[in-house]
Amino acid sequence: MSGAKMTQMSPIRVAVVAASPQARASLQALVEAAPALEFAGSAADAAVVADRFAGDLPDVVVVDLEPQAGDLPAPEAGRDPATPALVLLTDETDSDWIHGALGGSAMALLPRGATPGEIIAAIEAVAAGLCVLSPETLARLVAQHRAPRQMASADLIETLTPREIEVLTMLAEGLGNKEIARQLDISDNTVKFHLSAIFGKLRASSRTEAVMQGMRHGLIML
After folding, report:
1. Domain residues for 82?
2. Is the entire prediction scored with pTM above 0.85?
3. What phi, psi does 110 have (nearest 5°)?
C-alpha cells in the first residue's frame, strides 16, 4: 500500500521541445510552477530528446510545433508503453495529419494558444493514458466522418425511386406484401420486384434490415 501511495505521489517528469527559446522558457516556467509536475529538461529539436534523455526518459514530452516546423513528429504504427506520451501544441488543421498523429505516439493535441491550465490538464491526462483533443479538433474530426455518411445518404435518395421509398415506408409500418399491393393497386409480383430493388440498393438481406437502413439514411421516418 505504501508503495502504491509513493507511486501516485511521484511527480510527472516533463520535457519540453520548442524551436523558440521564448516558448521553451514559457513552457519550462509553466511546468516548474505545477506541484504535480517535474521539469526534466528542454531541447530545440524533437530529435535531440531521445539522445539527451537516453536511459532516463521523461513521462511526457510537450512539443510546441511552429507552422512549417521541420521537427513535425512522424506518425507511428503504435506507441511503445516505455516511450513518453506526447502533448502536441499545434495549429495544424490537416485532418489526415491529425488522424496519423492520434494513431501513433501523440496522445494530446492542443492549439498553440492553449491556456496554462489546459496544457497542465493535458499533461496529467496523457500521463494517465488518456487522449486529449481540443473542442475545435474534435469538431473537425466529427465533421470529416459525418460528410461521407451524408454523401452516402444523398446517393441512396437518388437511387431509390419515389415508389420504392413508398414501399419502404409501408414496410416500416409493418404491412405485408398483399397489403402493400392492395394499397398501391399493384400486383404481388410488382411488390416483390420493388422489394428486391430496395434490398439491393440498401444492401439489406431482410425486411427489418432494409427498414433500419432506410431510417439510418433518412429515407423514412417513424
Report:
1. 2-140
2. no
3. -130, 155
